[in-house]
Structures are given as C-alpha cells and as structure tokens.
Amino acid sequence: MKRLLLTTSIVFALFLICSQTARAQRPKPNYDEAKVPQFTLPDPLLTSDGKQVDSAELWWKVRRPEILRLFENEVYGKSPAAPNNMLFEVTSQKNDALNGKAIRKEVSIYFTGKKEEPRMDLLIYLPAKATKPVPVFMGLNFYGNHTIADDPEITLSTKWMRANQEKGVVNNRATEKSRGTSASRWPVEQIIDRGYGLVAIYCGDIDPDYDDGFQNGVHALFNKDGKSKPAADEWGTIAAWAWGLSRAMDYLETDPQIDHKHVAVMGHSRLGKTSLWAGAQDQRFALVISNDSGCGGAALSRRRFGETLNVINNAFPHWFCDNFNKYIDKEDELPVDQHMLVALVAPRPVYVASAQEDQWADPRGEFLSVLYAEPVYKLLGTSGFGAKEMPDVNQPIKQRMGYHIRTGKHDVTDFDWRQYLDFADQHFQGS
Ligand code: GTR
User: Fold this and answer.
1) Active-site residue set
2) Is residue 9 assigned to a domain?
C-alpha cells in the first residue's frame, strides 16, 4: 500500500514538473508591433534561379509550380491523386426543407469503390426555386453537419469529435443536444435567399482532429508499401482536409443541380488554413475565402506575431507535414511565406477576413499577405487589391482581392457572411 502511494506521488510529481516545463517552454506570444522582427519576404515573382517573372506564361509554367511544390514539400505535405473508383450515394433528399425554401440532400462519398470507412458525408442545401444549376459555398465544419442547422432530419454524426460540452459532445460523440449548436456560423436561410447553395462537411469525416500517428482517417488508405505513416514531405491533417474538399468537388461536378464552375470554398480558423490550401491546389474552386485563418493560413509566418510556428507545430503536430518543424524559430529560412499561398489562388477572387479581438491570428499579418500577393494578381491582368494600408474596422475592401477586419472576436458572424455573399455576387454574376 505504502509503495503504491509512493509510486503515485512520484508519478504525480513528475507530471507536475513535466507540465510546468512544457508551459515554461511555450514562448510568450508577441502582441507588440514594435517587437515584430525585421524580415525580408521571398519574392513571389522571382524564380528559384533568380529570373524575374514578368509574363503570365512564366508564372504559369515556372514560378507557380515551383511555389506549389515548396508548400507541398515544406509546409502542408503532398497529397495523393484522386482515387479512380469513388462511390457517391444520395442518402436523403427533401424538396421542401426550410419551410419550402430549400432542397436539402445528403450525399455519402466512399473513397475505395466499396462501402467502407472512412466515409465523407455532404449536407447540401439548394434554393428550391432555382431554375438552373446554382453557385454554392462549400465549407468544412468542426462538430458535424447536424450542428449547422437545428433540423432533426439532418443525420446526426456518429464520428469521433473533440470534447466540447457546449456542443453537446459526450464521450467524443455527438448527442441530440448537438443539433444546431454552430448555426450562428452558417446562415443557411440568408445564403438560400441570396440564390446560393451550401455544401457542409464535417472535417473529422476526412481525418479526426487529433494526433494519432495517422492511423485513422484517409491517411491510412494511402500509406506507401510497408510504411505506417506519411513521410516528412507527405500530407498532414490540413492537407487531408483540403484533399477531402477536392473529393467533394469531384462529386459536385456530377450533380446537375449545382453550378460547379461557381464554387466558393470557405473556412474558419484551422479550416480557413484548409480552404486556402484547397483553393491554392485545386483551380476548380472559383473563389476562396479565409476567415480568421491566422498562423499557417493567411498570416505571414515571419512576423512571429501572436501564434508562431513554434507554438502551432508543438500544439498541433498533426496539422502540417513533418518538414515544417525545420522552421521552428527559423522562419527566415522558409523558402515561402503565406502571401505566396494567397498568390497561388490568382487570378481567382480571394477574400481574407480578420477580427479585431483575434490578435492570436495576427490581423495585420493576414492583411499583408493579401497586399504582397497583389503583384501576381496584377501580372495576371486583374484589378488586384487596390489598398496599400489596412482599412478601418468594418470597412471591407472588395476588388479582385478582398479583405476586412471586423469588430469582435475569433468567430464567423453575419457581418462576415454578408461580405462573402456580396463578394460572390460581384464575381459570379454575369461570369
Ligand atoms: C487555435 C490554433 C489556431 C486556430 C484555432 C482554431 O487553437 O492555435 O491556429 O486554428 O485553434 O482552429 O480554432
């Protein structure tokens, strides 16, 4: 008994020491503009062998593929090609959802040609009165499709989810209480009233958001012979989520009710990092939106303001590829920075949003990524961004590139959605 007590106290003491060291090691975030280090950004319009990119041809043939490879190898990791035997199954359809305003359907995507896990479920709302294929917004969510609207007919996800009492998650599973708990982030009616559809997907269908050595989710389907996890330059979780968005796009291309040439991919926070990476790689996404995506998303890594590579790679070791760890506290050695991710979306419309109380995500760093990607947009003959200074709060900029910083905290609000809908109108109507 005594020995048991002694062992327990030693284990507890060790635990305390370890957790305190971990805390002590976690660098204090910088929120002081004066302490942002001097840095030089890699030039999106200079090839690795020093040639100035002065034509669209040189961009498409040389520099763009070069930048894409660098993000694959050093940041997010390379993803596999689309499987050629995917199965799409419509599992429910209701033509008078939302008081008759919307068609609501659910579609399951199987990746192996067989009805086996992992399976990705799409929840789709489309305006019921549409007479032609409709443009849609597509976005991943954090806690299941049943959270985006309080509708008992939406299938309740049975997948693993992160613990969250407010979202009614019990033992890492959704409950009836979870329904509609993220509805404030998804104004489905407003989207339908404006003539758009919405495609929602739970990110955990593609890869559950925890570090399990890539044993679950889609990674396990693609492990190379004899390997049990991706190599240092192969896909992490963000890349897997982005890959899932592209697989959803594969389905949209087959759905005659959807205008697949006008799909806007939108994501918040870690899922905003994901929408940018999806839009950067897959040019079928006609418009790309990053909501408060921060470090590893729209914010410049070299600024080291708020969340840094050190913090993000230690807190979420599964999000990026292993090579990204090389740049912890060595941001200046990165061959890219996040303005080049925005540049990969060019010339397609891109919108980056920040929130004033979301300093962790570095609003100024998010703005600067748009600004420093502008030369690529200009080279490709678009209006670009048109702003040189950060706008005042709640004063959106909407050219080919869009940006706003709104009042409030890290979240997705009606204000954000109004800008996205207006931005989509501006670019999709008549095109
Ligand atoms: C935070 C993380 C951010 C952001 C956020 C989220 O903990 O530090 O990079 O992704 O989570 O996704 O809500």
Assistant:
1) 269, 410
2) no
Tell me the residue type at 149.
A
Whether residue 183 lies inside any domain: the answer is yes
Q: Which domain holds residue 256?
A: 56-428
- In terms of Cβ atoms closer than 10 Å to its own Cβ (0-12, 13-18, 19+), residue 71 is buried
Residue 32 covered by a domain: no
* Calpha distance 183→127 (Å, rounded): 18
Q: Are 374 and 343 in contact (CB under 8 A)?
A: no
How far apart are the C-alpha atoms of 221 and 111, rounded to whole Å? Answer: 9
For residue 307, give the ligand 1 atom closest to its CA.
8
Question: How many other β-carbons are positioned within 10 Å of the β-carbon of residue 260?
Answer: 18
* CATH code for the domain of 360: 3.40.50.1820
User: Using an 8 Å Cβ cutoff, are 269 and 293 in contact?
Assistant: yes
Q: Cα of 425 to ligand 1 centre, how many Å? A: 29
Q: Is residue 41 part of a domain?
A: no
∠ at Cα 112 (111, 117), nearest 5°? Answer: 70
How many A from CA of 293 to the centre of ligand 1? 8
Q: How many domains does the chain have?
A: 1
Pocket of ligand 1 (CB under 6 A): 269-270, 294-295, 307, 312
Neighbouring C-beta atoms of residue 267, cutoff 10 Å = 30
pLDDT along the chain (431 residues), means of 10: 52 49 70 98 98 98 98 98 96 98 98 95 98 98 98 97 98 98 98 98 98 94 87 98 98 98 99 99 99 99 98 98 98 98 99 98 99 98 97 98 98 98 96 81
**Tokens linked to 126:** 């489309």
3-class DSSP state for residue 199? strand
